[in-house]
Q: What sequence folds into this?
């Protein structure tokens, strides 16, 4: 879906719908009061429709719910195009993944109705909304019919009105990482909902060396990726180190782009410093032409272009076969946390305080400009910036020195 249309609908349709549902909720509470903290949770659904990278940050929350309820009683709702990362993680049973296709309006509405029917049919009593301030998921949470509903509430904060639709209303804390925030939401269903604002408890702790479940590619996936590397000139497991670049040539959020010239400069430094090394370029199918131009400009037989040639499972498999990934803050940085690869992440309009990958092998680069981050949880990742100096201030030399320091 077009992100501009999504924003428009969420604002101009979402606000009145949230207001109407709030009135309905208050009337319903007179008939059937919300559950007490002692009411047992039997089945729990997480709403995380968008952003596969952020889904990896939710892994500690999934694990916490599974530990309490058992794998068979934990469900997740996602957009169809984001399902693959859940299959790769392997934490949620495939039959417990509820899908909404968001490609066309009528299909979207049909799937929403089917999803809500599945929630009621499965007797899911608790829904946890992982979206920060989207009104769509707040409405889904309410319409699910679940007696226990957990999500962010704005309380005295200005901005994103989404009604009063949750039984467990959590005060959003912008100083906790996203992984911590998700974990807090997952645990909040077992807390006293009368504590206002929630949650009056120490912030959840995620160990610095925490590692999500490792991805184990199939022999067929390994053979397929190895064949692509061999076709590009990388034979066997020799020729190390291997650096993966994710330049985001056509980034849907242009303000977070690191200049293509910087990627090219770093690639040349890497190839010069490591005569046995190689560079692998990845990206989306729409970036194919830009990637071909970029790889040709490097004029090296040790550069392999895999843009548009591999799917998500094969991308994670590629990370298993390589040594380092360089990318701006985006999904691949989080997918890489499922492997042993080193990750070098460039932050500008977003902050590593919230979105650092869940891997102890990550190196984070940020210029710490006063205007950064300009993306936040309540502005739909929109920015008025037309000159991303926060990204331009990160030099190829500085990033390469960090890589060379790690690899010698």
A:
């Amino acid at each position: 879906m077009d992100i501009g249309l999504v924003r428009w609908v969420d604002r101009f349709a979402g606000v009145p719908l949230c207001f109407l549902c709030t009135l309905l909720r208050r009337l319903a509470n007179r008939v059937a009061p919300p559950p007490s903290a002692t009411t047992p949770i039997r089945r729990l659904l997480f709403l995380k429709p968008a952003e596969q990278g952020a889904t990896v940050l939710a892994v500690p929350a999934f694990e916490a719910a599974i530990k309490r309820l058992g794998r068979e009683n934990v469900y997740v709702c996602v957009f169809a195009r984001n399902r693959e990362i859940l299959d790769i993680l392997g934490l949620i049973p495939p039959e417990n993944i509820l899908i909404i296709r968001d490609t066309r309006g009528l299909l979207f509405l049909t799937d929403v109705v089917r999803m809500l029917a599945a929630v009621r049919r499965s007797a899911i009593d608790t829904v946890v909304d992982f979206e920060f301030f989207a009104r769509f998921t707040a409405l889904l949470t309410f319409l699910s019919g679940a007696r226990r509903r957990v999500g962010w509430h704005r309380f005295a904060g200005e901005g994103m009105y989404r009604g009063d639709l949750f039984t467990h209303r959590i005060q959003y804390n912008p100083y906790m990482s996203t992984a911590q925030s998700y974990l807090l939401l997952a645990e909040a269903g077992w807390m006293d909902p009368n504590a206002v604002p929630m949650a009056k408890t120490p912030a959840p702790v995620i160990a610095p060396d925490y590692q999500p479940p490792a991805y184990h590619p199939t022999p067929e996936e390994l053979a397929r990726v190895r064949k692509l590397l061999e076709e590009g000139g990388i034979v066997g497991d020799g020729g190390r180190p291997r650096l993966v670049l994710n330049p985001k040539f056509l980034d849907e959020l242009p303000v977070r782009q690191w200049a293509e010239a910087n990627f090219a400069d770093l690639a040349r430094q890497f190839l010069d410093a490591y005569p046995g090394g190689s560079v692998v370029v990845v990206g989306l199918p729409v970036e194919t032409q830009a990637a071909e131009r970029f790889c040709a400009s490097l004029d090296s037989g040790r550069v392999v272009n895999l843009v548009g040639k591999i799917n998500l499972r094969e991308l994670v498999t590629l990370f298993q076969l390589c040594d380092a990934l360089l990318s701006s803050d985006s999904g691949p940085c989080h997918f890489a946390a499922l492997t042993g690869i080193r990750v070098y992440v460039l932050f500008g309009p977003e902050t590593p305080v919230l979105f650092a990958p869940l891997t102890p092998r990550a190196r984070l680069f940020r210029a710490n400009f006063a205007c950064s981050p300009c993306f936040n949880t309540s502005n739909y990742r929109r920015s008025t910036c037309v000159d991303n100096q926060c990204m331009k201030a990160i030099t190829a030399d500085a990033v390469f020195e960090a890589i060379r320091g790690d690899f010698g």
Observations:
- The CA atoms of residues 43 and 73 lie 5 Å apart.
- The radius of gyration is 22 Å.
- DSSP finds 16 helices and twelve strands in the chain.
